[in-house]
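Q: Can someone sanity-check these two? First one:
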Amino acid sequence: MENTNLPFFEQEAFEVWISEICEEIANVKDYAVTHFYEKYFPEHIMPPLWIASEYMTFGKIVTMYRKLEKDLQNLIAEVFNVPTRVFKSWILSS
């Protein structure tokens, strides 16, 4: 899978990250996951983020955040009404 959305992820590391998430999700028996694989696999190997994030480890979510462009990191911090450096300290100290 080509990395087109997380520019600070090297391709090889991105592929490992995605494959680990796919492995975690593959065994889930939730309706949304089952429906996704029945309807969209193999054209799409990864469910939409709103489904995948429910089964991603916190470490995977932190990795994704760290690889986002700085503008997106800033927008996420703004949602929590804190400076980006504070938000980063929250998630990286867990």
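And here is the second, same format, sequence then tokens:
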Amino acid sequence: MGERDRTDVEKVRAWLDEVILVKLKDGRCVEGHLECFDKLGNVILGDAIEVRDINGNERRRCGLGLVLAPGNAVVSICVRKSQKGVDTAQV
């Protein structure tokens, strides 16, 4: 594991229990509480919702519950609402 990888893992570990937004390769965005992640980049979100842009200006939200986002489908992860004052930079 390289130095950059360690830094990213530490950053994501600080985000546990935060509300995060995960962007997926197929264009979907899922928002929820970060419950767990692993070394393969798989992410588990609790109380998750899918956020979709409709016609470019309207957003539709659909409740999903507990979601596993496979690491090979994740494009980016960022904190939406920090409760602990953690670094909200994107990974």
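A (reply): Looked at the second one. The chain has a mean pLDDT of 85. DSSP finds one helix and five strands in the chain.
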